Amino acid sequence: MATKVLPFYQKRHKHYGYDYRNLDTRSVVKKYTSKSSVSKRSRSSLETSLSRHSPCAKRVCQYAEEEVPEYSVPPFRSREGEEEEVKPKPRIFLYGTKLREMEAEISKLKRSAHEQADMLALKRMEEERLAVQRHVREDSICRAPEFLVRLRSHTVWENSFVKLFCTVQGFPTPLVRWYRDDVYIDQTSEPTKYRMDSYYGVHSLEINRCATSDTAQYTALAFNIHGEASSSATVIVKRFRGDEEPYHSVLLPLNLPLLSPPIFTHIDIEYSEKFGVSFGTEGETMILSCRMILTPNLRRLQPEVVWYRDDVEIKKSKWAVMQYGDCTATLTLPHLNKDDEGLYTIRLITRGGISQHSAYLFVRDAAAPMVGAPGAPMDVTFYDANKDYVILTWKPPNVTKESPVIGYFVDRCEAGSDNWIQCNDAPIKICKYPVTGLFEGRSYIFRVRAVNKSGISRPSRITSAVTALDPADLARLQTIYFDASRQIVVSQDELEGDIKPPGIPTNVHVAETSRNYIVLSWDPPEPRGREPLTYYIEKTMAGSASWQRVNQEIAARSPRFAIFDLAEGKSYEFRVFAVNKFGMSQPSASSGPVTVQERIEIPASPSGVRCARNTKHSIVVHWTPSKSAKDLIGYYIDSSLVGTNDWQPCNHKPVKYTRFVVHGLKNGHKYIFRVKAVNALGTSEMSQESDPITVQAALTAPSSPYGITLLDCTNDSMTLGWKAPRFTGGSDIIGYYMDHREITDLHWHESNVKPITGRVFKVENLKGGSFYEFKISAMNMGGVGVPSDSSRAFKCEAWTMSEPGPPYDLTFCEIRKHSLVILWKAPIYTGNSDVTGYTVDICETDSDEWRAITEKEVSTRYLKVTNLEEGRSYSFRVHAVNTAGQGRPSEPSEPILIQVRPGTKEITSGVDAEGNIYLSFECHDMTDASQFTWGKAYEEITDFSKVHVETDGEKSKLIFKHPDMADLGTYSVAVSDTDGISSSYNLEKEELERLLALSHEIKHPTIPLKSPLSYEVFDKGQVRFWLQTESVSPNATCKFIVNDLELADSKDHKITFNKSTGMIEMVMEQFTSKNEGTYTVQIQDGKAKNQSALVLIGDVFKAALEEAEFQRKEFLRKQGPHFADYLSWHVTEDCIVELICKVANTKKETVFGWYKDYVAVPAEEPPNPQTGESKLSIPEFSRKDMGEYKMTLKDDKGQDVTVLEVAGKVYEEIVQEISRISGSSASELKIKCTPEGIRLQSFLKYYMEDMKVFWYHKESKIASSEKMRIGGSSDQVWMQICEPNDRDKGKYTMEIFDGKTSYKRHLDLSGEAYAEAYTEFQRLKAAAFAEKNRGKVIGGLPDVVTIMEGKTLSLTSTVFGDPTPEVTWLKNDKDLELNDHHYASLEQGKYASLTIKAVTTEDSGKYGINVRNKYGGETIDVTVSVYKHGEEIPVVKRGVQPPEQAKASRAEPSKPEASKSSKFGRRK
Fold it and tell me: Pick from 29, 474, 852, 1331: most CB atoms within 10 A?
C-alpha cells in the first residue's frame, strides 16, 4: 500500500479534493496548482502590455519558455510595489505654475496605467480559471485514492471513547475498510464496540468504552479501481493510577512511522492547586499561589499571567511582587494593609483564550497601639496637586466594638526622609483634607491616622510620592523639532515677554466646599508673562464691601488655595490679585456668594438585609442600598452569633455593591447580620438586623447516579438498578428519571413519566435482540441533577440460565487504614433455585487480574475486607451462588482508595446518667439533608421495640430499652449526604457485661468515695481517721465502728461529718495499745450506701503506735528551745563549708554552744533571731576538719542538741561538692616554665588533696613521679614536666571528678606552643644555674658598725662562688686603696676580711665588699661610724653616712665611676 507524504511546507495548508465542483473550491485550488496550462500567447501579451507601464512587470514574468513556476504572483497583487518603483523622483521647480501642471499630468498618467493593469489582470485571471477547470476535469476522470487528512494517534483513559478521522479523495469515490493490527474489523461481530461512519469523504471509526486491550495500530485502507492508499495511527489506552509515568515512545510498535510534530493553537489550562479565601492581619506577609497543568507545556508558549484586585490590574511594587515559573504563579504581599483586601483574580492569557480564578482576601486590623483605639484608615489617595498644596482623600475604618471615630490626623513627610510632620492641629472630621504649605519641586508622601476617645490608631499605608508642581506649567511648554534627534523646548512665558503689571485672574470659583474649609480656584491671567506669578486672596461677607486679605503673610504660588477659619453656614465672596515683580493686578471679579457648608450628608442606613446560604462556612448577604447614596464610598457588614451580641466586622474595606459573601463562619451556628453605609463624612446608622440564619451549604440539585446495572431481562423488557448520587444537594432525593436509546439511534427517549421512587426500574416495550443504552437523572427540591454517563450497551434478550443474576448496588463504608466494609443487594434474577451464598472478588487498580477474597461462600450481604494496603485503590465485584453454581458477577465497583478520612470518628458505647446503655456517633460534616441511619448486621433497624434513636444536631444515640444477650452483634451507622461517613461497633459479651454492671451501679447507686478510710498522726500524738465522699445531700448519715462497737462523738473520740465537702473524720486524743483492731465507716444517703474499712493489726498497728509516741515526744521537746532543722552541711560558691541548723523557741537567756570532738568551738556569730538560722563556717576545708560537730541549746525551759559526724560518707560528699564547684570554676590549662621544666596549671576556687584530680597525656593516665610531678596549692592545680623532651609533646588533659560529672580542661603542648615553652625552660634553667654559681656574700657582715677612735676594726664575711670569686672592697662606692692602714685578705677562697688599724674619724663611711665571678656577683654595704672618746655613741642608720664623712664627701668633687657588668647584683 502506497502512501503520499506531504512536503513539510504544506503540512499547515488546507488541501481539497477535485471532486468538489463549486466555484469557491476551484478558486482555492487555483492557488495551489501550477501555471503550466496557461498559454504562451496570453503570457506574452501580458508581458507586452505591462512593459509599457511598469518595468517591474518584466521581472515578475521573465521565465524561460520551458520553465513553469510553481506559483506566480498576479499582477494586481504587486501593484503597490510597481507604484513605488515607477514613482518619479521629485524635481525642484522654480515656479509654482509649472509644478502644478506637472503634478496633474503625472496623476492622469498614473490613473490610466492602473486602469489598464487592472483590466489585463482580470483577463489573465479568467484565462487561468478556465485552464485550471480543464485540468481538474482531466485529472478527476482517473485518479487513485489520496488521503487529504490522515489518521492521528490518540492516548485515552480506560472506559472512555475515542474517534479516529480521515479525509479521502479519489474518482470514482473510494471505499474505506478499517483494520486493527492488520486484522479486519467486523462491525457486526461487536456492534456496541465499534461504529463506522462516512460523510462526503470524511470517514470515522468510533471505539466505545476503551479497554487496555484496545491498545493497537489502527489502519484505514481506501481503494478504488485506480489504486489504493492507507493511513495508520496508534491508540494507547491508559488505566488511571496515581503518579503514573507517561508511556514512552519505546512502547509503540516499531513499524509505525514517526508522527509529524504537532502544531498547537490552543493551550488547555487545568489548576492543580488554587488559592482560596484567605485571612490575614495587617503587617503579615501573604502569598497567593496557583499551580497549573498546561497542555501542551511549551517553553516558548507560556501564558501571560496578570493579577487583579477588584478588577484593577496589580502593578509590581514594594507592596506586591508577582512571580511565575515551573507552572506556578505567585503573588506575594510582603506587608498586608487593609488596602490589600478585595477580590483577587489571576488571569492566564494564552492563544486559545483566557483562564482565570478568583478568591477573596480579608485583612484584619492589627492590634491597636492602645486598647480601644480604632483601626487605621485605608486607600489614602491624592488629587489636584499643585505647587504648594494637594488634596487627600481616604476611607474610614470599620468600627464595631470601639468608640466612634471623631476625626483624623494627616501626616506628611518629604520623600527620602523619615521626618513625619502632622499637618492639622485638631482632628478633621471628613475623609478629605487639603494639605498646604508644600514647597515647589519637592516630593512628599502622606499617611492618615484615625482618632477616637480611646486614642489614635496605627497610621495608614503611605501614599506614593507626589511632587508639588503646577500641571498647567507643562501645558505652557512648546516643542520645536529640527529632526529626529534634535528639538527645542520653549516656554510660552518666554514668548509672551514681560507683562507690566500682570493681567487680572479670571474664573474665580469654589472647587471644594466643607464645613471647615473651602478650596478656591481661578485661571491665571492671559497673557501671564515670563516673570513668576503669586496671588493674594481677599474675602468679604456676602453683601458687604469690606474686603479682608486672607493670605497676608504668604502669597499663593498656584491658582488653588485652601481657606480655613470660616464660619459654618455663613456666605462669603472672594476675589484674587495677581502679583509679579512689576506690581499687582487689578482685583478679579467676585466669586459670588459661597456658603460654607457640607455638600454631602451622612448617608441613610441601608435596609432590607436578607441572607442566603452559600457554603458550609459562608453566607450571602443582600441589602437595599441607602436612599441618600450621594458620594457613597461603600458598605460595611457586621455579624454576630445569635444570643451573644458580639459583633464582628465581616469586611475591613468598604464594598460598593449590595451583595457580599461573608466567609469564615462556623458551620451549623446561627448568625445575624447588619449593614452600614459609608461616605466621606462617616458611617450611617446600623441597618436593622437580618433574620437569623444557620450556616450550611446551599440547596443544589443532586449529583448524578452511577453504576447502572442490568438485573433481569426478557424479550421485551429490562430491569435495571443503579446507585444513589453521592451528594443529594442538601435535600432528600424525590425520584429519578431514566432515558434510553438504541445504539444506532442518536436521540434519547424517556423511559418513565412519573419519578421513580426506588433504585430499581423495569423498562418495557423494548425490541428483542436490540442493544440499548441508559442514563439516569436524580431529582430533589433543588431540581433535576446532571444525568449520569450513558451505560454500556445491554442486549434485550431473555435470561434463561440456571445460575443467578448479578448482585447490585455495591456500596462501601467504614473505609479505614487497612480495611473496608462492602455491602450489596441480592440479585433480582435468582435462576432455577434460591441464592445460597455469595463470593467476592478483588482487583487492584493497576492490574487486570481478579482474585477471590472469600474461601467459602458468605451467607450475609456484607463483608469486611481486611489486609488492604493503605494508599492503594481496589475494585470489587460480587457473585451470587445457588445450587446450579456461581452466577454472573456484579458490575465492577469504582476504584476505592484505602485511606482514612481526616477527622474520622468511631461509635462509642456508654451509660447515661439514668443508667441507660447506648451507642453514640458524632458527625461534623452534616447538611440539612443528612440523616443518621442505624443498623444491625448492616440491615437498617426498623423494629424499635428493643431500641430507640435520639438525634440532637450532629450527635445520634442508639439507646437499648431492655439490654440482654440477644442484643449482641454488629451495629452500624451511616450519615447520608456526606462523603461516605460511617462506622460500626461490635457489641461483645464482655463489653455488654461491663455496661450492665455500670448501669446497675447507676440505677442502684453507691456513694462514691474520693478517698477511702485512712489515718494520720498529729503533732501532739493524736490520731485522725478520715475519709471523703463525693457530694452528698444534707440528709446523709455516717457511723464509726471499731471492733464491731459503734463509737459516739465524745471528748476522747471527736467525730465530725462535713456534708458540703463529704469529709468524715474521727480524732482519738490518746492512741494506745488498746486501740488495735478494725475501723469501719458506714455511710448512707437515701438509697445510696457505702462503707470503707481500715485494719490496724500487727506490724501496721505497731508502726502507727510508734509514730504517735514519737510525735508526742517531739511535741514535748518543742515546748522549750529546740532545733527546727538539725545540723546539715552546705558548700558556698567560694568553697567554704558551712554547718547549718535552725533553732526555734529561744530567748535572750538561751545558751548556744558549738563543739568539735567535745571541744568548744567559737562561733562567728550567734543565731539569727528572726530566722533562727545558725552556722559554723570552715574555710579551707581539709582532712584535719573531720570529726564530730555538735551544737547545744539550753535555758530554763529545757535543752536540745544536734550532732553531725563529718566523716566517712559525709566527708566524701563534701569533697565531691567542693570538686563540683572548683571543677566548674577551673580555668583553661596554661603553660608556666620553671628552671626544672614545663608546668601545666589551672586556677580554680579551691583545691584540696582529697579531690579526685587526674592528668592524662594522649588519653593515657599520668601518675606522679620524678619525671611528672603532680601537685597543687589552695587556688591551683599543676603538673610539672621535668626535663621535657620530644616524647612529652601532645595533648594534655586535666580532669576533676565530683562523683557524677567530670570537668576537663585541655592543652595541646606541641608545635609552636611546645617550642616556645621549651625555649623559655632552657633560658630559665641557664639563669638558675648562673644564679646558683655566681659570686655572693653568704654572711658575716653587719649592717652598721660603731667604733671608738683608735681601735682596730675587722670586717669579715663568708663569700661563695664557682669558680672562686674575686673580692673587692669599696669605700663610699669607690675602690678602697689597700695599705698598712687598710688590710684585706681571702682565706680558703671563702673567708674575706678587711682590717682597719687605729681607726680615725676619717675612716667613717660606707664600706662595701664586691664579690664576683663569670656568672655575676653582688655588693654588700656596711656603714662604719667612728666616734671620739668621751662622746656619745652616735645612732647611725643603715646606708646613711656619718656627718663628718658626709661633709667630706660634699667637699670632694665627684669622680666618674666605671660602669660595672650587668652580671653583678647589689644588696643593701
Answer: 29
What are the DSSP calls for 1220-1269, one per residue? HHHHHHPPPPEEEE-SSEEEEEEE-S---TTSEEEEEETTEEE---SSEE
Rounded CA-CA distance 167/1113 in Å is 119
For the chain, helix (H) and strand (E) counts, in that order, are: 12, 101
Long-range residue pairs from 1304-1308, CB within 8 A, at least 24 positions apart, any chain? 1305/1226, 1305/1227, 1305/1228, 1305/1229, 1305/1242, 1306/1228, 1306/1229, 1307/1228, 1307/1229, 1307/1230, 1307/1231, 1307/1240
| Cβ 1321 vs Cβ 1238: under 8 Å | yes
Grid cell of 245 as nine digits: 509515568
Higher pLDDT, 889 or 139: 889
Model pLDDT, residue 134: 63
Using CA atoms, how far apart are residues 72 and 128, in angstroms rounded to an integer? 11
Distance CA 229, CA 3 (A): 6
DSSP bridge pairs for 393: 381, 432
Judge whether 532 and 489 are in contact, CB under 8 Å. no
Residue 329 is placed in which grid cell?
504563579
Beta pairing class for 1464-1467 and 1416-1427: parallel
Confidence (pLDDT) at 55? 35
Asked if 192 contacts 274 with a C-beta cutoff of 8 angstroms, the reply is no
The beta-strand segments (E) located in 172-283 are: 175-180, 183-184, 194-199, 202-207, 216-224, 227-238, 268-273, 278-281
H-assigned helices in 1157-1239: 1209-1225
Identify the CA nearest to 32 among candidates 71, 87, 60. 71
DSSP structure string for 699-736: P------EEEEEEEE-SS-EEEEEEPPS--TTS---EE
Q: What single letter denotes the amino acid at residue 1448?
A: A
Instruction: Say how far apart CA 1012 and CA 1029 lie, in whole Å.
Output: 8
Cβ of 233: how many Cβ atoms within 10 Å? 19
Q: How many CB atoms lie within 10 A of CB 685?
A: 13
C-alpha to C-alpha distances, 870 to 816, 834, 867, 874, nearest whole angstrom:
9, 37, 9, 11
- Nearest CA to 214 out of 848, 666, 681 is that of 848
Residue of 895, 851, 846, 852 lying closest to 875 (CA atoms): 895
Three-class secondary structure of residue 1384 per DSSP:
strand
Measure the CA angle with vertex 70, ends 65 and 75; round to 5°.
80
**Strand, coil or helix: what is 33?**
coil
* Cα separation of the two ends of the chain: 132
Check: CB of residue 860 under 8 Å from CB of residue 878: no
Q: What cell numbers appear for 671 in the block? A: 448568625
Of 940, 986, 984, the closest CA to residue 821 belongs to 984
User: Pick from 567, 569, 542, 564: which is nearest to 551 by CA?
Assistant: 564
**How far apart (Å, rounded) are the C-alpha atoms in residues 936 and 941?**
6
Q: List 359's β-bridge partners, or say none.
A: 344
In sequence order, the β-bridge partners of residue 1088 are: 1085
The pair phi, psi for residue 344, each rounded to 5°, is -95, 135
- C-alpha dihedral over 43, 46, 48, 49, to 10 degrees? 170
Cell numbers given for 493:
512665558
Contact 460, 447 (CB under 8 A): yes
Model confidence at 221: pLDDT above 70:
yes
The β-bridge partners of 378 are: 395
In this structure, of 93-107, 257-271, 1074-1088, 1216-1230, the range with the lowest mean pLDDT score is 257-271
Percentage of the residues of the chain whose pLDDT score is greater than 70: 86
- Which set of grid coordinates corresponds to residue 635? 458598605
CA distance 971 to 949: 13
Cell numbers given for 874: 481496589
Q: Is the pLDDT of residue 244 over 70?
A: no
